[in-house]
Amino acid sequence: MKTVQWGMIGCGDVTEVKSGPAFSRVPDSRLLAVMCRTAGRAEDYATRHGIPKWHTEARKLIHDPEINAVYIATPPDSHAIYTVMAAQAGKAVYVEKPMARNSRECEEMISICKRNNVPLFVAYYRRRMPKFLKVQQLLQDGVIGEVRTVSVHLHWPPRPEDFNRSGLPWRVVPEIAGAGYFMDLASHQLDLLDYLIGPIAEALGQTANHAGWYPAEDAVVAHYRFENGVLGSGSWCFTVAGASKLDRTEIIGSRGTIVYSTFDDSPLQMINDKGIQEFSTPRPTHVQQPLIHSVVADLLGKEKCPSTGISAARTSTVMEMILKKSVQV
Question: At what angle do helices 103-115 and 309-323 cross, to 10 degrees?
Fold first, then answer.
């Protein structure tokens, strides 16, 4: 493989700026085709983004002989289905997060890709964003000493679409998303901790649906233990007042604390006895581009991408433990 030629399944909001344009901005990479079941949307997306081909059937895109890698940008309920199709066709897979609705689907995806000798990557793109690489550097440099504990807080007000009982957003429909906003947003935070601190060995949690606006949980609290013994906790609530909005992760060490937000561009902080030091980092125009660059480099044999099916499945397992979900067989 000299050039990675992508086919993209799905053309929703995440692909407009975050991911789609990045595939053709990475060296030795090109977005060749897009698929949407609605012909008008597929053609419109291809026209606006300068993509040569468009399809209304995933199978036709996947079996296009010019395509050697498939980006799956659909809701989680179809991630496993399209991964199986791509893997059986011998195409590399890059799938949106969360990887799947549950750990059983994750294992199915890993297994089919392994059997067909194709790589599987997952779009936990914060593993390559400059802000979080700076956090990684600070930890590696030992500026806060030994990590003792970690806390995560994400408290957000409701979105207007949460009240639309005639058409709820798929992110709060468990049959599609696997759970609610916790699955969609906390997955970024927990996967990032897997990367920065190490795998989580145990987790437990409690959930509630206080507002009753949708079938999924709207509040979650959790405790977890990393394999290296570090302890952590977290709280997530998606029905707070605007004034109570909070996005804060603290990595607390023996000589200081690193504080950062996961979803906004505020500077990260390093706090110790000498005071507070802030670090500002550039946010990529296309936030997935650094990770896509790593995926392409991996496919071309130049480096190893840090976000794989194996690492992403760990995050899905942790969320499943927190939500106390029983896997349907």
Answer: 160
Q: Are residues 138 and 273 in the same domain?
A: yes
The DSSP code sequence of 276-304 is: EEEE--PPPSSTTHHHHHHHHHHHTTS--
**DSSP line for 92-159:** EEEEPSS--SSHHHHHHHHHHHHHTT--EEE--GGGGSHHHHHHHHHHHTTTT-SEEEEEEEEE-PPP
Query: Starting at the edge strand that comes first in sequence, how are the strands of the sheet with 275-279 ordered?
Result: 200-208, 219-226, 231-237, 147-155, 246-253, 257-260, 268-272, 275-279
**Residue 305 one-letter amino acid:** C
Q: How far apart (Å, rounded) are the C-alpha atoms in residues 53 and 143?
A: 50
Distance CA 91, CA 69 (A): 5
pLDDT digits (tens, 9 = 90+) for 80-132: 999 999 999 999 999 999 999 999 999 999 999 999 999 999 999 999 999 99
Nearest 5°: the CA angle 105, 108, 113 is 130
**What is the separation, in whole angstroms, between the first and last Cα of the chain?**
38
Rounded CA Rg of the chain: 20
Q: Are residues 63 and 183 in the same domain?
A: no
How far is Cα 75 from Cα 203, in angstroms, rounded to an integer? Answer: 25
Give this prediction's pTM. 0.95
CA distances from 288 to 11, 24, 129, 292 (A): 15, 12, 8, 6
Cα(249)–Cα(269) distance, rounded to whole angstroms? Answer: 11
Residue 212 belongs to a domain with what CATH number?
3.30.360.10
Percent with pLDDT over 70 in the chain: 98
Nearest by Cα to 317 from 101, 84, 168, 149: 101
CA–CA separation, 156 and 268 (whole Å) = 20
Q: Is 315 part of any domain?
A: no
